[in-house]
Amino acid sequence: MTSTIDSLPPNLAKIVQRFQRSSDPKRRYEQLIWYGQRLKEFPEADKLPENKVSGCVSQVYITATLEDGKVIFQGDSDSQLTKGLVGLLVEGLNGLTPSEIVQLTPDFIQETGLNVSLTPSRANGFYNIFKTMQKKALEFQLIAND
């Protein structure tokens, strides 16, 4: 399933549109950093191996909780741009149901234009962060179906 803006959850669609309005790669990076700055303080106690995103050059941590059937993510990274990618995903995916998250494909990154300016290792990091978030959502989905 390819995602067009219309098929994206509202928060994610809003983020994609925000990036589409800017064609300047520097401006997009500033926007990404802004998303990183919006992240809540990540508890040191949650910087555990099971919350660490593997396959990322930087240190990236993601936690997920289920509140009223909706997934709430928190994340952090030691790299400013990667933290921005985490912030973008946290803001875009928070409040969705596990099945909504599991059904998403990461190709919306193309819609933002960020994929053009991200280094291959950052683009790979984005994919790994997204997949980790999906995996955590899938675990909630499996628990709910038990």
Task: Sketch the major β-sheet.
Answer: 2 strands, antiparallel
Evaluate the radius of gyration. Answer: 14 Å
Mean pLDDT across all amino acids:
91
The assembly state of the depicted protein chains is single chain
Shape: globular
Order of helices and strands, N to C? HHEEHHHHH
The assigned structural class equals mainly alpha
Secondary structure tally, helices: 7
Residue share in helix: 40-55%
Total DSSP E strands: 2
Cross-sheet strand order for the largest sheet: 1-2
How many angstroms separate the termini?
27 Å
The residue ranges in which pLDDT falls below 50 over 5 or more consecutive positions are: none
- Strand portion: 5-15%
Write up what this structure looks like.
This protein has 146 residues and is mainly alpha-helical. The protein contains 7 helices and 2 strands; from the N terminus they run ααββααααα. The protein has helices at residues 10-20, 25-37, 80-93, 98-103, 108-112, 114-117, 120-144, and strands at residues 60-67, 70-77. Strands 1-2 form a two-stranded antiparallel ribbon. A hairpin with a 2-residue loop joins β1 (60-67) and β2. α2 crosses α3 and α3 (80-93) runs parallel beside α7. The protein is globular. The two termini are 27 Å apart.
